[in-house]
Amino acid sequence: MPTITLVLAQETSEAAFWGTWLPLGYLALEWTIRLTLAPAIIRKHSAGEAMAWLALVMFQPFIGGGLYACFGRQLLGRRRVRAAARAIELVETPQRLAMLAPAIAPPDSIDATHRDLFALASAVSRTRPLAGNMGEICDNTQFIERLVEDIDAATHHVHLLTYIYHDDPTGRRVADALVRAAARGVACRVLADGSGSADFFGTLGRSMRASGVEVRDALPSRFFRRTLAHIDVRNHRKLAIIDGRTAYTGSQNICQDDYGQRRFGPWIDLTARLRGPMVAQLQMLFLEDWAAEAGTLPPDDGLYPTPEPAGPIVAQAIPSGPGHREHAFRDVTLAAINEANERVVLVTPYLIPDGPTLLALTLRARAGVAVDVIVPEKTNAFLVNAAAKSVFEELLAAGARVHLHRRGLLHVKAMTVDDTLTIFGSGNFDRRSFRMNYEINLLAYGREVTVVLREKLVGYLADCRPLDPAELSGRPWIQKVADDAAKLVSPLL
């Protein structure tokens, strides 16, 4: 009996110990996480982002701390910053920049009211507006058809950069054209995002390498890696350069038009096929991304044929992403909206603008400018859908019109301002594209290019329904709470 009593006493003592100290230890660890992360969050983030991260970390320290370790730190590690800076030095030599100097648009080729916009674009993007370009807009099928035709006609090189490359009929069709070109002695280089094209590298990418196509992954998607601190920074650019004379850029990836997500129907994209001096500018941007991954550049011979005028369009590439051009896309977009006097037409699949950009849109609407925003009725991003409700409410209250596209998933990213300005490319009008991802967009000037694109964008209204303010105000109470909760984390989306 004494032995049994002693054992019971020991068990009671251990239970009391764990029952007292375990909760205290858990509480102490929670507050350690909170007090450790709070100063870093406040110091390193904008006010909106800091408030969102603080709310998450304070409410759920372990979950919030884990998410912050993966997604909240500095966008790029030191090694990646150095690699990107070195790539720019390798590509943007005085000799190559001098090659483009004759094509720089003279000041009087741009109306005086818009010269400041292009001066801003030059300052934040490190590019210059170039005259003498020609462009045509291709939809999904046209893009793949024309791309394959141009690859089959290539004689020197083909450069392809994409966020998503799928091993599907479309991906294999482009791959077959690249393999045929490589067999002719054409230098073929493919750069695909390490996350968006993760499955590609072990299947189709491997067979392309075996056939002589150089394939590299941009921002390799490994959870533990030193070169990239923020694991969801992605290269979202879409570019194709053929023989240094023809270029493609826009919203479409190399995959079937359902993007592997059949529940939304076909994804609707637009891509510009370009000729003229702009091609050399885009070539330089492709090679900067290539050098950032490879560490070296391919031989210069034949990559930069003498730029020749091909049309009347004045255009300028707006590359953006972490590093030297971090806010270029947002800054140019914001400035272009502020220059609107008559009409803004904006098409994007994801609309989560930052505060200044949303304010610019609402102020233009209140000033009497016709603001039409065209977005898909449903997208593949649940949180973005919810957080966008508050954006829609502000736009509608200011007098803007919001149109919900109902056929497939409208994936086009474009904006026209009056009859003179166009922004077009890979960037969504959301915080991720504004600050986090590597994007490539074009800023174009001129009535011809703007009216043609605007007619294409306005054509989507035939498959839209207008969003009624009463629809938002009539949502069930629980849905309003959920949407408002999503709005709180919108700075992190």
Topology:
Layout: H1 2-44, H2 47-59, H3 61-71, H4 78-91, H5 94-100, H6 115-125, E1 130-138, H7 140-153, E2 157-162, H8 169-183, E3 187-193, H9 204-210, E4 214-218, E5 239-242, E6 246-250, E7 267-268, E8 271-275, H10 278-294, E9 313-320, H11 328-338, E10 343-347, E11 351-352, H12 355-366, E12 370-376, H13 382-398, E13 401-405, E14 409-410, E15 414-417, E16 421-425, E17 429-430, H14 431-436, E18 439-445, H15 447-458, E19 464-466, H16 469-473, H17 477-488
Parallel strand pairs: 2-3, 3-4, 7-14, 10-12, 11-17, 12-13
Antiparallel strand pairs: 1-8, 1-9, 2-5, 5-6, 6-8, 9-18, 10-15, 13-19, 15-16, 16-18
Helix pairs in contact: 1-2, 2-3, 4-10, 6-11, 7-8, 11-12, 12-13, 13-17
Question: Any overview of this molecule?
Answer:
Helix 4 (78-91) crosses helix 10. Helix content is 46%, strand content 19%. Mean pLDDT is 87; it is low at 223-229. It is globular. The protein folds into three domains: 19-71, no CATH class; 78-316, 2-Layer Sandwich (Endonuclease, Chain A), CATH 3.30.870.10; 328-492, Endonuclease Chain A (Endonuclease, Chain A, 2-Layer Sandwich), CATH 3.30.870.10. Strand 3 (187-193), helix 9 (204-210) and strand 4 (214-218) form a beta-alpha-beta unit. The chain is built from 17 helices and 19 strands. A 15-stranded mixed beta sheet has the order 4-3-2-5-6-8-1-9-18-16-15-10-12-13-19, with helices on both faces. A two-stranded parallel ribbon has the order 7-14. Strands 11-17 form a two-stranded parallel ribbon. It is α/β, with parallel strands linked by helices and 493 residues long.
